[in-house]
Amino acid sequence: MTEQEAIKAHLTTNYISQNGMTFISGLCGGLKDARKISGRHMDTGDKFPDNSKCSKDDNGPYFRGHLGSWLGTMGYLALLDQIGKCYKPKSKAKITGSISAIKKCLKYFTTLSDDEIDIIYALRNAFFHDYSIFNKYNGKNNFFHLGHHPTKPIVKAPAENWDGNYNNVKLESQTWANLEAIGDLVEKIYEDLQQLALTNQLDIELDGGHEELFRRYIFVSSEKVK
Predict the structure, then answer these.
(1) CB of 142 within 8 A of CB of 122?
(2) Integer Cα distance of 10 and 7 in angstroms
(3) CA dist 117 to 137, 156, 182, 221, Å?
(4) Are 36 and 24 in contact (CB under 8 A)?
């Protein structure tokens, strides 16, 4: 498999090679899972209206997820980590030094400020470390106010910093995080990756190159995928 074939397989939901083998991408599988639990169409990422969270089909009622889902957001945040490990745009200078993959991804593929990136990184740590709304990181303390809204900013720093004392939490020290907007951001990054791949504008950042991309994040399927 060539480098471009490996990238295409990684960015395609069900990639069928020339010899007829079907490959499943961990990136696309994670994207589908995040969409499903976040109230989005599994194949397109389109958002379902809030009033259609629960619908019916031939199998009876089923839950369509919620745009403010913590677990759904965790899925999206995990994908930022994967993308940051795998890719950079050829037009961007390589980021060196000790920096997390999620921050790399956000620096390479968004226009977010360093402060906004730090807040998203702190939210990722709060969710993944102990599924909470608090995070103390590198001298920066965050007490999160979570919500979902189609137009509000993705994150917003508090009016006054939280001092890290759990007995001293107040509205003025809450850091805003818009979970719907985080999902939108990852969906946009995924779209941009596909466009960059079409014009051969993606570099693979993994030490093992496209062979590592293929073996680490792409899986062979022996069954027909729905």
Answers:
(1) yes
(2) 5
(3) 13, 11, 11, 36
(4) no
| Rounded Cα gap, residues 109 and 148, in angstroms | 22
The vertex-188 CA angle with 184 and 194, nearest 5°, equals 150
Q: Helix 26-37 crosses helix 3-11 at what angle (to 10 degrees)?
A: 20
Nearest-angstrom CA–CA distance, 49 and 51 = 5
Torsion of CA 32, 3, 121, 77, to 10 degrees: 0
For residues 215 and 32, what is the distance between their CA atoms, to the nearest angstrom?
20
**How much is the pTM?**
0.89
Q: Which residue do the tokens 């106010």 mark?
A: 145
**Local confidence pLDDT in tens for the 226 residues of the chain:** 899 999 998 998 766 666 777 778 999 999 999 999 999 999 899 998 764 455 555 444 455 688 999 999 999 999 999 999 999 999 999 999 999 999 999 999 999 999 999 999 999 999 999 999 999 987 889 999 999 999 999 999 999 999 999 999 999 999 999 999 999 999 999 999 999 999 999 999 999 999 999 999 988 776 554 4
Tell me 151's DSSP state. S
Q: Residues 56, 58, 60, 65: is their CA dihedral positive or negative? A: negative
- Distance from C-alpha of 54 to C-alpha of 69, rounded to nearest angstrom: 15
Q: Which residues pair with 56 in a beta bridge?
A: 61
How distant, in Å, are the alpha carbons of 3, 152, 189, 207 from that of 124? 31, 19, 17, 25
